[in-house]
Amino acid sequence: MKLYLTTFILIFTLISCQNNENKSKKNDTAMTDQNNPLLKDWNTPFGTPPFEEISSKDYLPAFKTAMKQHNQEIGNITNNPEAPTFKNTIVALEKSGHLLKRVSNLFFAVESANTDKTLQETSKKIKPELAAHYDQISMNKKLFDRVNEVYKNKDKESLDSEDQRLLEETYKNFIRSGVNLPADKQKRLKEINKKLAALSQQFNDNLLAETNDFELYITNKADLGEMPQQAVDAAAEEAVKRGHKTGWSFTLQRPSIYPFLDYSPNRALREKIFQGYANRGNNNNEHDNKQIIEQMVQLRAEKAHLLGHDNFAEYVLEDNMAENPENVYNLLNQIWKPALETAKYDRNTLAEAMKADGINEPFRASDWRYYVRKIRAQKYDFDQSATKPYFEVNAVRDGAFLLAHKLFGLNFKPLPELKGWHKDQQVFEVTDTTGKHVGVIYMDFFARPSKRGGAWMNEIREQSNIDGHFVTPIVTNNFNFPAPTKSMPSLLSFSQAQTVFHEFGHGLHGLLSNVKYGSLSGTNVPRDFVEFPSQVMENWMSDPEMLKLYAKHYKTGEVLPASLVEKMNKAN
Ligand SMILES: [Zn+2]
Predict the structure, then answer these.
(1) Ligand 1 midpoint to CA 533 (Å)
(2) Is 271 a catalytic residue?
(3) Is this complex scored with an ipTM above 0.95?
(4) Is 449 helix (H, G, I), strand (E, B) or coil?
(5) What DSSP line would sit under 183-229, residue for residue?
(6) Has residue 20 got a pLDDT over 50?
(7) How far is the CA of 349 from the centre of ligand 1 (A)?
(8) Would you state the pLDDT for residue 24?
(9) Catalytic hit among 191, 503, 545, 566
(10) Residue 19 above 60 pLDDT?
């Protein structure tokens, strides 16, 4: 997936700016805290963030200063005595908030992938303030009057297609943010946006807390079944980390829960960890999310009504390729029947296998993965762990790089001297066939308690090219793969290897961007288009020609045997 900060995406799109480190106005430094590395010019290789200088407590004051600066820039636009033009209004707006964008992009990337108490506290404080900040701009009548003036006279200026697109998007975002609402409704909308920002943060914090709070500690080796050594070692290391002298600890992070559900013959324990996962935020404790969901649903409905829509889905989809809920349901209904039939067939097959094990009880969701694995082994002689030695994480990464080289002529050079936000992070410079710098990609592969679940991509700096000043992109890829243990490298399952190519596809979408305006660059596209480049790239992962080039056994260098691929395809 591609990470969107849903609460702010519209306003970020609206206010998105040029990331131009050298063009900061001279008075920037006078009004900022001299010691805050987030507010200084970054005289680093390729303008990458100086992570070794930045600490978690720097973000909150940086946000405050950056918002103040942004307000001044907006003031300069609205107070401009000249008649509004595309350049002095739309482009000026696009360029404004450069510092805030830099701080926000970095903060939300780090807060998702390597959070701590300070970052969580900062997020809690700043999200409602940011919502209010952007509302103040997008409901600014004086500013909108200028935008509207440019919009009405768009045929009188010679605008190219990208200029026109920026103008359309800017105008539309003001309307969708409620600029034309009467004052009382604007006031309520601002309250709603602030509350939604706070609630979404609370929801995420609760989810992470519940994920980290759960532990399944076992001491009976039989409960591990035929679990691969990599997962057993990781569980033993986790037990030590959690203060046990012996035994194995399993958590709700995917590299831990999946092997347990796949391999443990202990049905009751499988149910325990499965329910632990499914009920995160549903334990009637201080991290319960039920009321938060209820409040969010109500507030979103109210927001949609205020903005003249029947429901929130209609409001969101209006700005996407799907256009309306009817189109979404038409697609889903076509899939629903055959998908349900297939799921029922699978469930019955798996339930039969359980019966054959002598268990005459209703088949449960927590039995699913265990019997999928068993049937694959029995019927198709395929064990998914058999492919893992061929997908060592760095080999898969190099496969993705090789693909980008073959398709787009890109080259990737490690930058070991550049620090990331975590010691496990890898940094690469991307260049084209002529050796010209294209951008930088940060890759963060392993699961840890400070990282939220799933896999995603961020843009720390968007590509832009205003007035001939080309700003190159900086992107990140984030995963939750098993970290190497003392005895084993990080070996990926087939679908995890696919995820590398998928997220890398989002990364390329950002890296290969070549437009003028940052708010239209890279992955700043409709939500229901953004998964297209990633899914195209994902399909290359299992291409037989590609597999030959990168899927090699981590010990012997042997290429993934075609017979194993064939077995796997049959088993799937
Ligand atoms: Zn994706």
Answers:
(1) 9
(2) no
(3) yes
(4) coil
(5) HHHHHHHHHHHHHHHHHHHHHHHHHHHHHHH--EEE--GGGGTT--H
(6) no
(7) 31
(8) 38
(9) 503
(10) no
